[in-house]
Amino acid sequence: MSDLPALNSYAQTPAGVEPGPEHGKSGHGSDEEDTLPPAPILTPVAPVDDSIYSLPINSLYEVTRLPTLRVGNVLPSTQRNYQSHDFITRRLILEAAAESLFTTFIRLDYFCYGLMCPYSTLRDVRASSPMLTAALCAVAALHDPDGSSVFKTCHPEYQRLVMGSMFVVSQSSDTIRALIIGAYWLADISYTLLGHAIRLAMRLNYHLAYYAVIKGGAEQEDIMKARLWYILYIHDHQSSIFNGRPALISASEEPHQQWEAFIRINENQEVDLRMSSQIALYHITSKVRDVFGGDPSQGVPNHSLPQLRGYFAELDRWYMIWGNRMPRNAHVGWFPRDGAILNYHFARLHLCSYVFRGLPLGFLPSASVEVQEFGRTAVTSAAAVLSLAVERDDLRSALVGMPIYYHAMINFAAVFLIKAAKIGFPDSTAVNAPAVLSQVNDCVRELRAQKASSQHLVYHLANGLEGYMKVLSDPNQDVSMLPAPMSALGDNASTLSTADSIFMLDTFDLFSYVNM
Fold first, then answer.
1. Which Gene Ontology cellular-component terms appear in the entry (predicted)?
2. Burial class (CB in 10 A: 0-12, 13-18, 19+), 36
3. 456 with 143: CB under 8 angstroms?
4. Which of 239, 196, 179 is nearest to 404 (CA)?
5. SS3 label, residue 88
6. Domain extent listing, the chain
7. Peptide bond before 426: cis, by omega within 30 degrees of 0?
8. C-alpha separations of 385 from 238, 266, 375, 421, 485 in Å
């Protein structure tokens, strides 16, 4: 594929086209009305692939030479002086403020494995990618106690740049990074950004970088691409759990199963250990979804409960391998280790949700012994999530900094405990209202104590959980008075009062940041 011509736009003449009066005319309307270019007159050209086998898209490119059909590594766009017209030069924010935000983001980056900003200065970022500049400034402002007004400027600028890039053919790894940053930290647009990032990375063949690395002697660029793909895989499977939707990236592919080989080939670097722990975890949770499906009204039949218990055993083995394997990070302390433990307890809570799907809330107190058993496991796991979040120093200090999925885990656990205590499930010895109120109140107090911009998710979680606690503490209000599941990212939430509503993650409003 190395002899392919450089990428051009649809409007430019493809390679091998003979100039003529037909080129550029459709014969049935003005040029502005055309959605596709006219079929050009092509002269014979040499094949772009000397193998008898070729991807259908490659064959189509050979025949048509339409540049936008070309697959593989997309050439970077012509080097431009982006800095001369970015939002900082336009003085939407001051350069001194941007420098401060850049410094803030460098620390935040290590919550996302330290791979989102490969530049040592703001000047270098601005020269490379306006979108990456806007992304890191927006996220850093969100985590700045004095950053509210700056965030209101950076967030819409970032969205504008993302929307403007949707149909741009020439993209770079900085675009992928910019999209990942938004997907990891901006709750209101996370799902949309993640899907776009995955599709773009696939078009750039990031999913194939693992194979180049595993052969040995890979270029640093291939290692970088493989790691960015792993980050997308991790967040995709987190998002699948968060939203109750299928993951876009399959867990059955070799790169998502041979994490130990990837660790070895890269000499046991910390970043690969951290990512691989997550890849291994979501390998387990994806198997559970594959077996039991994604229908929230379909529970686990009794004859399948032993199989589900087997997945709990796999989680226990995962914990034994990864629970203490991550070293302390110089920037975020023991967050990698403590975050792995948090993920373990949350994954156990998530697996319990399969048992409760489709069961009416009123049925739970008189449920079968097996369901009661999973109820006790769920209560224990949820309580462990909240305890870790407030008792582990590096998790508590990371409440402002951690990606939104971790906030979702904490919220998920708190809401489950409140609902379980309100209906007395599984029994009063396993969960009681005073103990739950005390534990959730400790969590709310920690959330409120954090220092971030007023738009940060921690404050919205604190407000929402306080509302839940009022219902729990009032004996005159039953579980139906708990806030109804909100519409997540525009989707219609079910109004059925089922036990699965205990496990809804959308108990906080996925708000529009810019209106706050």
1. nucleus
2. exposed
3. yes
4. 239
5. coil
6. 1-72, 84-186, 295-515
7. yes
8. 16, 32, 15, 16, 21
Count other Cβ atoms within 10 Å, centred on residue 475.
7
Q: Cα separation of 246 and 296, whole Å?
A: 12
- Region 378-387: mean pLDDT is 97
Strand partners, 467: none
> What pLDDT shows up at residue 22?
39
Q: What is the pLDDT of residues 316-371, one digit of tens each?
A: 999 999 988 999 999 999 999 999 999 999 999 999 999 988 887 777 777 788 88
The count of residues in the chain is: 516
Helices and strands (H and E) in the chain: how many:
18, 0
Contact 417, 440 (CB under 8 A): yes
Write out the two tokens for 221: 């660029």
For 418-475, what is each residue's pLDDT tens digit?
988 988 888 777 788 899 999 999 999 999 999 999 999 999 999 999 999 998 888 7
The SS3 assignment for 23 reads: coil
What pLDDT shows up at residue 32?
A: 42
Count of CB atoms situated within 10 Å of the CB of 52: 5
